[in-house]
Amino acid sequence: MQFDQDTLQSLEKVKSSLSTDKSGSILIKNNQLVIPRSLQHKCIDLAHEGHLGIMKTKQLIRQKIWFPGVDAMVEDKIKNCISCQSCTQTNTQEPLKMSPCPDSPWLEVSVDFYGPTPKGDYLLVIVDDFSRFPIVEFTSSTSAKSTIPILDKVFSEYGIPATLRSDNGPPFNSHEFSAFAKNSGFTHRKITPL
Question: pTM higher than 0.85, yes or no?
């Protein structure tokens, strides 16, 4: 079997896992035939005849053959296959939509936790969505039981917002927090964090 200079340099990197068959004419790497450059495209074409997709084609090839750059060559072949591209569903995500800016301060606030800090505490960060004014309070826990009194204290000082925005973290999706929102009179809007 004849190998070009580039392939020989790549084989040098994996020489500890190379061997030959009994006749010494076939190069083997971990029970896979090592394919010379002149046959590599033909092997990829044969493995791709069923249009199995990138992962399954790679699995099929790895069962029997190996050569340097085989994965990249399979990916390139399939990405440029017109039949595969016409049958592949594209996952186009909906663009992110910006939330409209509130009309006045403290109408809408966003709340989240940061931490734990090196001391083991957490920071409850409350941001006014209009002015971006932050309020930061230390807490020893992220539970609803410790979050609600802090929010109650902040709301008594700055007023109750119309909307409180948070992620779906445990303190914010508890029954206690839902009851707190209802009793306080604000709308709790759960958002997906970025």
Answer: no
Q: Which runs of E-coded beta strand occur in the chain?
A: 18-20, 27-29, 32-34, 65-66, 108-114, 122-128, 134-139, 163-166, 187-190
Instruction: Give ranges for CATH 3.30.420.10 in the chain.
Output: 108-190
**Whole-number average pLDDT of the chain:** 87
**Fold of the 5-86 domain:** Endonuclease III; domain 1 (1.10.340)
Domain 108-190 CATH class label: alpha beta
Cα-based distances in Å from 110 to 68, 132, 164, 172: 52, 9, 6, 12
Nearest CA among 172, 185, 112, 123 for reference residue 145: 172
Q: What is the pLDDT of residues 144-153, one digit of tens each?
A: 999 999 999 9
